[in-house]
Amino acid sequence: MKFSVWPRPSRSTDEVLNLARHADATGWFGFWFADHYMPNTETGEVEHGDVHEVWSILPAVAAVTESIRIGPLVAPTSVHHPAVLANRAVTLDHVSDGRMVLGLGAGWQVNEHRAYGIELEEPKVRVDRFEEAIQIVRSLLDEDRTTFDGTHYTITDAPSDPSPVQELLPIVVGTSGKRMCRITATHAQEWNTWGAPAEAGRKRGIFTDACERVDVDPATIHSSTQAMFHLTDDAERIAEIENVDATAANSVAGSAERIIDAVGEYAELGFDEIIVPDFTLGSTEAERREGYDRWAAEIIPNCS
Hints:
The chain is of the alpha/beta class. The protein has helices at residues 13-25, 54-63, 82-95, 110-116, 123-142, 178-187, 197-213, 235-242, 245-248, 256-269, 285-299; strands at residues 2-6, 30-33, 69-72, 75-76, 102-105, 145-149, 154-159, 171-174, 190-194, 222-226, 228-231, 251-254, 273-277. The longest helix has 20 residues, at 123-142.
């Protein structure tokens, strides 16, 4: 099992880069960062709060690290043109000497689309757009020239120079929808989803079925998942998390032994990578660093 870090985009740039250096030096597998412009709200209203922009953060992370993989989790094609995404990814692959992973999604956050005047199309059209975009990105990453004539995009003999450092720069798609999973199985190299083991397992079933429908072995696609990991021995806090349906589906709460057991469940489900968000690791940089170090000392060495 691989383990990766994911700082909240509101963290100071100093903290983000310090974490990246530390994760790189202590053997973590990946560094992920969300592609959003503002905090999400359930009502779609704008809420103030610092959110650093991923395509500015990632080059800095690449420059201060040597081995850790880097990528957005995930870049919405509702916001970014596929040619822009492909060119950004290739340049970052060169800056990082072949450590870039391009995370893609169809887009979902209502308030940032509304506030910035970016159309958030109804789901079918949004997925139609995504299906065209991922094909264009894959071609631009792999081919010398790309031509594509679709409903949403027209690409005409577009060059792709330079080529990525990696022979195959991986695309990871974050999704659990049936059609999006089929698109992922067809065009991507990696798949990502949210959930505690039970929820992640349910979504894994959707993805496996999608792979079978397009004749792809799901074991050939690297899969990752993340949850709200609460490393605690506080029985009241554990019960509070586990007894609220809205949080329980995406949360794992308990001792280091409980987290280790959960990692084992993820492994049995076929997941290859666990992403550990810093969202539940503490209210200060020192507490969050201690949380990651507890993972490195108490959990990761005990997960085969």
